[in-house]
Amino acid sequence: MRGLLLSILFAARLVQSQQIWDIWQTTWDRSKLFTSLAPSSPINFVNPGAIGSADIVVDDSSQFQMIDGFGGSLTDSAALTLSNLKATNAANYWSLLGYTFSPTDGVNAAGLNFIRVPIGASDFSPSLYSLDDTSGDTSFSQFNIDRSPSYLFSVLADIRSINSLVKVYLVPWSPPGWMKDSGTMNGGSLQSQYVSAYPTYLLKAVQGFQNKGIPVYAISIQNEPQNNDPTYPTCTMTPAVEGQIGNGLRSLLNNNGLSGVKVVGYEHNWDDAGAYPVTLMQDAGNSFAGVAFHCYAGAVSDQDSFHNAFPSKEIYFTECAGTIGSDWWGDIKWYMDNLWIGSLERNSRSGLMWNIALDGNGNPKLPGSDSCGGPGCRPLVTVNSDGSYSFNQEFYSMAQASKAVIPKDPDGPFAQRIGVSVGGSLNWSLRVIAFVTRRVSSSDWPRYSIVVLNWDDNAAVSWDPVPVDATIEFRGMQAQYTFPVGVTTLWWFAPATSGLDVNHLNVTASASQASKNATSSNTRSQAKSTETSIFTNTTAHTQTTLTAKPTSTLIATTARNISSYSSAPISVSLNASTLA
Questions:
Q1: Model pTM?
Q2: Across 491-517, average pLDDT
Q3: 40 vs 208: CA distance, rounded Å
Q4: Cα-atom radius of gyration of the chain, to the nearest Å?
């Protein structure tokens, strides 16, 4: 009897808090751009009924990779663009950084947190430079981190003042020119006599950032090691050479108190995922945490070739660039399908675009570079010379995914991908990914989130955007939501494990008055905490007063006692099989 009572009370608490309060949305017509819908009443999970045209089934028993976050590259050009904005319009600068990077729960911000930073010059730098341009200096006594522009470090510091969770990932576009057979950072390969010395250069880069107060999360050996372009910093490198450098760097990091800094390999396109990075792991896998991919050749499904060969190695997606003038909604569909859902479905821990900020023409670039030719590469945010700025489709699509994975608690964990599938007659119309975000305190319930792309727009024939009536299934309970054509992110809270056969028990509760009156995410969170304490108190009360009553009286009295502690009316119904 006591066990039945506790199950009733547990289920009442479970169902009341399995409510969707938080919804963020970007629609195809831009009527909503990463907009918080802040519903006045929750969407409740209830006893299952008929499924919708699409039926989203979230399976939190299937757990996959942890997510490290989303972001882009802070090249010299991106940092200069932002630094100039700070000088022109400081208020807009801080507003832009806050909206882009703030991780605070409930605020109107994307919480981007993964920043890729070139070591030395890239194709988006004012000029060619390395951090030691003294020919023959194999001890790197002339290494100087301040050869990087000061505004790079000041912008990074400003970003970190907003988001202390930022992960900085260092990547060289080229070794110093004097170490290469081309004699320049543009094109060519690292000369064999410098392979053993080069890891020291990379170690000093990590130490240089650390000494600037910027912790380094990871470092790569070479950006795009199969790319040889004489117009901007590039360097071809075989898997064997990259492996030798990785081995040397791993040892140096470990021996200098930097064992926590990850070494990531490959950093190139999907199309060779089953060859170069596989060979690299075979040669030097113990030194590498994993590999990173770019989008410019191949398909996201190619990531499987690497994962199947080395399932324990980490995968990162670290670069893709939009083209200025391309179709806004078409781009968002592609990004969601291939990157923010597709790449993570295929085990990536991160999702990054190329430049964080540039001007309307995709500048400034390295003089003479043929990179991002034609219309130019579009950044996450376009900054104009008058101090105004505008976010692009790359940002809005990414923000929808980022919002689902950032920590719920300050200094809490990022999300983990969990299982999800889509059934129903319109299952093809929704692309969905699901996550769980755990809490700092074991007494706080995890957040369960889904990111949903509705791409049922009939664009290939005649434009006809169709909202999709969907059901969301979670642990035997069901919620209903109509997804407009666009991207929707929503979440709810539930215990880490259900511990209850909900097929035989149906307990429903309306929102408490505190929740009804909540108008902000923070207030709603406080209301949910209030509801939790209400049910905790109720449990303690009923355990001592109702254990000797007949079953039917017990159920009714339990409901009354719950109501006496909460303004939320409770109804309880049990199947006959439960009472047997």
A1: 0.85
A2: 52
A3: 50
A4: 26
